[in-house]
Amino acid sequence: MPIQTNNFLRRIYKWRYKNISQKTFIYILSVVVGLLAGLASVTLKNITYFIEASLEKGIIFSSNQLYFILPIVGLTLVFLYVKYVHKEKLKHAVSSILFSLSKNKGHIDVKQVYTQLIIAPLTVGFGGSVGLLGPAVATGAAISSNLGRLFHINSKTRSLLIACASAGAISSIFQSPIAAIIFAVEVFSLDLTMISMLPLLLASISGVLTSYFFMGNEVLFNFSINEPFQVKDTLFYIVLGVGTAIASIYFTKMYFGIINLFKPLKSPKYRLLVGGLAIGIMLYFIPPLYGEGFSFINDLLKGDHINALGKTPFDAYIDNIWIVIALLFGITIFKAVAMTTTLAAGGAGGIFIPTMVMGSALGNVVAKLINNSGLGFSVSESNFTLIGMAGLIAGVQHAPLTAIFLIAEITGGYALFVPLMITASISYIITKNTVDYTIYTRELAESGELLTHNKDQAVLTLMDLDTVIETNFKTVHPEMTLGEMLHDSVAKSTRNIFPVVDAHQKFLGIILLDDIREFMFDTKLYNTTKVETFTHKAPDHIYYGIDTMQIVMQKFQDSGAWNLPVVKNGKYMGFVSKSKLLTAYRRELIRFTK
């Protein structure tokens, strides 16, 4: 960084410390972060819409039904960018943010500020079946992280600013500021206190104002409720809740199933080719899978399922309502497949909006089944379309409150609040008891890197094993004599435990001072007795890079030991003491809760 820039920043820091309190400065930063995240969201949408409009007007693919090859073009462009510019493996947007919060103190590479602005529009604009919300949140999070680093913000505040960025991005895309705040709390496991509430609120307001400024009163879903909730429909909303729960479980399992299916394809080129062809085939038979799918949802809300389905090979049979139901159910099934295939093939995007598309199709299917069952029942198809979205969001994201308030804000009121609560809560309860973790959190949870609302677990997740490993122990070798051990190790050590290692630092066991105390003054044994005579197993081992801090704490509890050796690939690295571990835990707990 140039000297002049450093001096300029230094003057800003001094002025800020003298004139602006820390609390006020956080409020200011939350507004700035909300504005920038909102601007990033608007930019993402506009670039994507520009690409889509250019392809629709300037290329003849859409008119002769060859548009299904466009995703391959988009994925190829993303592949080239990642290989020659980004030069790093792409990670899922929200999962990478959660990892940065738990294990990287909220630090996010500055490259993420612009990378998502390039690769996400290329993926979605060329027809990839993913959403823009995840990339928008990732871009906003990267902006807030680097802004926090620029102003020397501590890791706890930096994490809050990242949550503010997500609130600003969601508020900008959906124009739903309340749901945006709740999303930050539910997904990022943020403690909702007044300290965090006000910055989130300011960021959310800033995000939605940015959207209004650049997009005007344009809304994603142009819908008003004409048929309010009726008590007689309660059973049907319960059925919808069960249906969306099953669909949520299917969505999650299908995601990991397809990701695992692509793992044997080591080369990105093969993944691109196989994935691109698979997406193209699905798009040919089910055109609504193309792109994000907001137009599909809007058509269903208008009651225009013909336009929602578009041109398909089954147009000759579209007058048959059961064919329509089958096609809509096909979208419910294949949206998850198309979305995951897009990501597995190397595309960039989010899962939130595909979840909404899948939920809208399922809700509409359930309503059509009820209305055409011949039993005399009649329900609002548009209402079920909306509430189906809430059910899928609650189940797939494990975010029932986000689902409820998002749909309530989209509809401009709370007329459907009761059925939203019924369907979302049932979907969440069933899914949560079947699938422990979401697509965002499963891999992080398995590696012990997931922050949760459980404070004890969150503190342990934030702790770093490297900070509690002690290495000032004198090692001994099994072939050493007792005299050599006493002279070279015991006499020079302040510890009462000695790790036994071989010539290659492989850990063999331990010797306690108490094990040799009665032999220390028997000089006859100094040259005849070797260290291996006193060596015994440690109560347990801590495996570096494998054991999480939760497991480490559990091993201390189960073994009753005060010191446990740390080994990596069988080699000795040091010890962790229970006293130092508990001291570090208390220090982290204070920092986490203050």
From TrEMBL:
SUPFAM superfamilies: CBS-domain pair (SSF54631), Clc chloride channel (SSF81340). Gene3D superfamilies: CBS-domain, Clc chloride channel. GO terms for molecular function: chloride channel activity. Residues 469-531 form the CBS domain. It is found in: Membrane. Keywords: CBS domain, Chloride, Chloride channel, Ion channel, Ion transport, Membrane, Transmembrane, Transmembrane helix, Transport. One of its GO terms (cellular component) is chloride channel complex. The keyword Membrane applies. The chain crosses the membrane at residues 24-44, 64-82, 113-140, 160-185, 197-215, 235-258, 270-290, 321-338, 345-366, 386-407, 414-431. It is a multi-pass membrane protein. It holds the Pfam family CBS. Signal peptide: none annotated. This is Chloride channel protein, CIC family. It comes from Maribacter dokdonensis.
